[in-house]
Amino acid sequence: MSTFDYKNHPMLKTAGMVAGATTAVLAVLALKYPDRAIFDEHREGIACRPGWPLLGSLPALLANNQVMHDFLLEGFTQTDAMTVTMSAFGMPRSIATIDPRNVEHILKTNFENYAKGPKFNDATEDLLGHGIFNANGEQWKYQRKTASHIFNVKNFRDHFTDVFLQEIDYMSKYIFDPALQNNETVDFHEIMFKFTLDSFILLGFGVQLNSLATKDKVPFATSFDECQLNAFQRFVNPFSRALETASAVFRPWKMSIQQHLDVVNSFANDVIDGRRRQLANGEDHRDLLSRFMNARNENGEPLDNKELRDIVLNFVIAGRDTTAQALSWTFYNLMLHPRVEAKLLEEVHQHIEDDMDAAKLYEVIKEMKYAHAVFFEVLRLHPSVPNNQKYALNDDIYPDGTHIRKGDYVMWSPWVMARSEKVWGSDAKLFRPERWFTPEGELRRESQGQWPAFHAGPRVCLGQNLATLEALVAIVYLVKRYRFTLVPDQKITYQVSLTLPMKNGMKVFVHSR
């Protein structure tokens, strides 16, 4: 019987030579790219967060994608820099900054040089399409101009404030008062999402959703949230598309992203079809949806259902998510800081009467400086969009001297900025509304570069005054009527998404004042 000659077999010899050559090549490449992804060059003059040979920061990104904001903060702390670059295999070059001068440069001074870019569009197009968040150029301009007409003082005073009061009364009637009487806990975070969804759908699209009147979750809201979570993963995980496909195949019992999108699209199309029927019957509406249905796109043509669908969903994320999250983080901080709550309650008692009409309330709230300071401080520490990015259309130089190349993705993180002593001083991590007052006792407004809570420059949030009004109306009335306390043994933290929701909600006890 012959024996197999392992040492001299030609196939094994060839395999061994290939393996040896591959190892040698990888070793050489690892020496050339010791702390960054293969083929990514070293960028002189920019602090670099060190990563693995050939892979860069990809392993760290994947390991920390559920605590991404803390991961970014750690990077700035480790490098002791305000502008940092990171290299990750399978992902484009990213340059992140927390320098207010650079942020203002990106968003305002050299606004025309920075667009959403292909990466942003690829991650969010199936959800947001070509709505105002994704649009660039003339497409963005006509959407912004069309929407701007509803954000006027008359609407704020005579209509919007009244709707907010109505929805707050629904909250009390259907949720907080029964919980108080029955000594039940409630998920404050979920309630705020229902409140802002009901309010915005009524104001923007003329639809009475009444989600506050039911304990059930809203299917549209659940699917909308899942689509946002998924979109963010596409930013930080180069394998996300493959994982979506694998999940659909190997976990058929779980709703796929496409199924969630179907729910979202069905909701938007129902809203649009309902309005078309109303218009056909001669009904006259002057809300956001009607303005767009009567408008022309950048090509001078009436908007089709796909364009209207994109607009509806973009304004829902602006009108529901950001304010609901801000309200949730506000009451979380009030529960943690009874001194602040007591001071706010004192101001509420000085200004707010139970039978105050909407027009008077609108004027009174403008005078409530401490309530504004509380809200501004919440948006500082818990910004509605914690991280954002743009795409450089041409070479540029930041105010701090950083050289940006055409095709670079530039990022800024309001969440990290809020925790940086270089930006906000030694008490940066503290919740302290008093920082928003001048020595003379007037409200302070920081530069848009330092406090980009509502973005900055030409794309500054169109609805910032609406969001502030809605939040303050809810804050002052809920503080006046109730005291909330956290249910013990729950961890309140953020969910990594396009915005800043709470990961597991926020369970509270409800007490009367």
TrEMBL record:
GO terms of molecular function: heme binding; iron ion binding; kinase activity; monooxygenase activity; oxidoreductase activity, acting on paired donors, with incorporation or reduction of molecular oxygen
TM stretches of this protein: none
One GO-annotated biological process of the protein: lipid metabolic process
Binding-site residues, heme: C461
UniProt keyword annotation of Protease present: no
Cofactor: heme
Alphabetical UniProt keywords: Heme, Iron, Kinase, Metal-binding, Monooxygenase, Oxidoreductase, Transferase
InterPro entries, alphabetized: Cyt_P450, Cyt_P450_CS, Cyt_P450_E_grp-I, Cyt_P450_sf
Source organism, top-level taxon: Eukaryota
Record has DNA damage as a keyword: no
Family: Belongs to the cytochrome P450 family.
PANTHER family: CYTOCHROME P450 (PTHR24296)
Protein name: Protein kinase alk2
